[in-house]
Design goal:
Number of helices: 5
Radius of gyration: 34 Å
Strand content: 5-15%
Number of strands: 3
Strand order of the largest sheet: 1-2-3
Distance between the termini: 96 Å
Length: 156
């Protein structure tokens, strides 16, 4: 007895599914491309923002702020001629001329060389003896009431 093969009944809405690994490989490839593109974009943005010039200027500004707010002004507050009610008595005469000019070297070594750890990096780009900083107190002559004029002698 020979068995006849049974006929396969195919419904009109039947579609055979393809079994492949392509969707997974495609997702992995797209993920790798996306990650690489994102990395390139981030690296480009950071290279534009974190240039040596921007880093040096930001570092010097931070040191100047620390000097004026946490060293100079603190010493001024403890002087006998200082009046907390009217700090302008001492500072207003420096509003247009500024305080004595400082060099970058001065700022690196004040307060027991507080910022000397930044010396090597800053010395790569700037001349410590010819980068000048002048601080101008502004009304109401409080700790954060000032602006600076920085003359950079740097190679960037």
């Amino acid at each position: 007895m020979v068995k006849k093969p049974q006929k396969r009944i195919v419904h009109s809405n039947y579609r055979p599914q393809k079994i492949t690994a392509a969707p997974l490989a495609k997702k992995i490839t797209l993920g790798v491309i996306f990650a690489a593109t994102l990395t390139i974009i981030i690296a480009t943005i950071l290279s534009l923002i974190l240039t040596p010039e921007n880093v040096v200027k930001s570092t010097i500004s931070d040191i100047v702020s620390d000097y004026y707010e946490n060293y100079f002004y603190q010493k001024l507050e403890s002087s006998p001629n200082f009046s907390k009610e009217n700090p302008g008595l001492i500072l207003e005469k420096y509003q247009t001329t500024g305080l004595s000019t400082l060099t970058l070297r001065d700022l690196l070594i004040y307060d027991n060389q507080k910022h000397y750890d930044k010396h090597d990096y800053l010395a790569k780009y700037c001349d410590e003896d010819h980068t000048f900083i002048r601080i101008f107190p502004e009304p109401p002559y409080e700790k954060k009431s000032y602006h600076t004029d920085i003359t950079y002698s740097c190679n960037f």
